[in-house]
Amino acid sequence: MQAKVNDGDAILIGLDKKIDLDNDKILLRHLVIAADATTLIFEVHPDENGWTFPEGALTLKDKQGNTYKNKASYASGYTWGQYIVSDYPPLEDGVEAITLDFEWFDRSFQKEIPLNQGEIK
Question: What is the pLDDT of residue 111?
């Protein structure tokens, strides 16, 4: 992923956004957009010990009506929570913003992310 960004084949968007989900904190770190995939990198700081974030409950949506479902996730556990890298299909051409849409039982959030960060080679 880093090589694609360095070669100009992917765009790295720094997010640094915090989402409060009940007493838990979601820290959005980066979004990587490439021609073959979209990757969301974030941290989960749970208030409850033992709660793990259900990555499959987080989808990406665009204003054209497309929904991008999680293809794969990689999580590392730490004493403070989880560091998660989630892969999604590539975004359609012309997408200017995506909405992160999380729904898990009675817990939910939506967060819009603008994508005006440059062009992929």
Answer: 95
Strands (E), the chain: 10-21, 24-34, 38-45, 58-62, 67-68, 72-78, 81-88, 97-104, 107-114
H-type helices in 2-119, by residue range? 2-6
Partnered with residue 26 across adjacent β-strands are 19, 44
The rounded distance, in Å, linking the Cα atoms of 39 and 32 is: 5
Indicate the Cα dihedral angle 10, 57, 63, 85, nearest 10°.
-10
Instruction: Report residues of the chain scoring pLDDT below 50.
Output: 121
38, 87 in Cβ contact below 8 A? Answer: yes
Residue 35: CB atoms within 10 Å:
11
